[in-house]
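Entry 14. Two folds queued back to back today. First construct below, sequence then structure tokens.
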Amino acid sequence: MAAMSSVNPATGEVLARFDEIADAELERRLALAAATFRSWRRVPLAERAGRMRRAAEVLEARKDALGRTMTLEMGKTLRSAVAEAEKCAWVCRFYAEHAERFLSDEVLPSSAARSYTRCLPIGPVLAVMPWNFPFWQVFRFAAPALMAGNVGVLKHASNVPQSALAIEAVFREAGFPEGCFQTLLVGSSRVQRIVEDPRIAAATLTGSEGAGSAVASAAGRVIKKTVLELGGSDAFVVMPSADLDAAVATAVTARTINNGQSCIAAKRFIVHEAISERFEQAFVKRMAALKVGDPLDAGTDVGPVVSEAELRKLSEQVDAAVKAGGRLLLGGAPSGGRGFYYPPTVIADVPPTSPSYREEIFGPVALLFRARNVDQAISIANDVPFGLGSSVWTREPAERDRFVDELEAGATFVNAMVASDPRLPFGGVKRSGYGRELAREGIREFVNLKTVVLQDAAAAAGQPGAAME
């Protein structure tokens, strides 16, 4: 079988190689997932919660080592990688605490003696996950899925095999039964086969549009549910009433978080013309002051992009934007030397005729636009195929309400940076995908919402809602 390589983006060094599992091993693991589901679904919620809390403890105890694995494998700064492990512990505890309430029976009115809905698990769920948040993307799926009584099988990005195996080890150390969560070291060419396997009940994917389309198409042919999060080109809108200093400082963080490789990173900065020059000068100054370097160094602000291929793609997108007429204000070329480094870059006034105007740009590259008024700001913000997040900076209630109602996005954060939070539903519209992760909505995506009708009073005795009459 083909080999997977773990490459350090800061040096280009190959850290480890892993062979894909053979077909026989894949079959064994899928059979194990199906068998484990039949028993795991009957485990009481309180017991599931205890193991999920133990997973949180394992993550916190090992956060430094796990963070180092993430940093070496995909280049995020060490402090952000450790914080990612801590956030994974948070989502584990969140669902351990709230799953019972989220999944509880809900009494409904009807002509029968008693009617209610019950959330029941559906089976093994395939998760196809990306490299940019190698732990968080997985745990925000796994914590609710396992608490709901499902089991998980992970096809992680092929360039983060060490992270993928470490996640499986966390669940094993936390006491989850064998087969409750499994990492499958397989390439993308085998995903369709796994999706179509009758033992897989559903699939979730975070990644590119192409990958999402392929998984959704395969699932559609066999009538299986999918949840997709396919990236974005988030707008960051700044109006004259905003606290400009706070907006600029947050804008720099929002563009360069995770070395600029985040689906919900702000990528297009749309600023009212009355303050655009002040914003531009302050923003470029702050971007230029960021330290680019070794992600293991505590003083580093921006590390490398994940791979040589991504570095080349990023360079091509910047070159195309400038060639089309964009004003290059900072950066604009790979750093050169060892590793896959691209400096913080700012380009203003990219015309709509440039592909870079509407593409998602993964890396520390910001596009600046000027807007005459609220109408034009909304028009520019919506003039992309994506609709994941959006950030709006204004202290005018009327403007705030316009943006909340009219921005085509799964989330709008007012005077704040877009971020995922276990307590809040997360997902997008348009070509950013469909479905929701996190919060109550996330745990209910992969359940059978069964309607139960008890026609006579004798059958209804002792059932949900009996004490309400």
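Second construct, same run, same settings:
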Amino acid sequence: MKILIAEDEFTTRMLVQVSLENWGYRVESVVDGNQAWEILQRREAPHIAILDWEMPELDGVEVCRMVKEMERENPPYIILLTARDSKKDIVEGFDAGADDYMTKPFDDNELRARVRVAERLVRTQTSLTETVAELKEVLNQLEMIQGGMTVCPSCHKIFNNDDDCWYSIEETVTRQNDPHFIHTICPDCSGK
């Protein structure tokens, strides 16, 4: 799994990166919020982002807000890693859209545990999204089948609601985009 680190302080960035790489993660690191925002907008953005609060350009909280406003089925899981430790700051970080919050200096074991939780949640969310998409497709097919087809009893043409046209049975069956039909070869024909 790929993780983004956005941290302007070199030592902290390297400590986090080395730890993550030692635990088997692929890491992309940047030094400011603008770079982090650019990466997180990509189609193949990292699933987890560890952001410092205080960075040049955009700060971590601004990046959190912008990421959470994106219309994505699976937005990245964001961990704010910051020296800010007041209750007010923690609440502000979560209100901005952070999924987790850690204070510096960080403990290696705690970071590993929190990243593992993030990874589990990301995998679960991805699986749920795929399952929902499959269920929607099945429901669409069921609705089409239950809705029935309008067939002319004289010429046996079939009415297509999508384009308000009548088609012969052959035309209807050969149209690959018609959800009424699931195209497969029957056992009798597969032996030919």
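Quick look at the second one. The chain has two domains: 2-131, 148-190. The mean pLDDT is 88.
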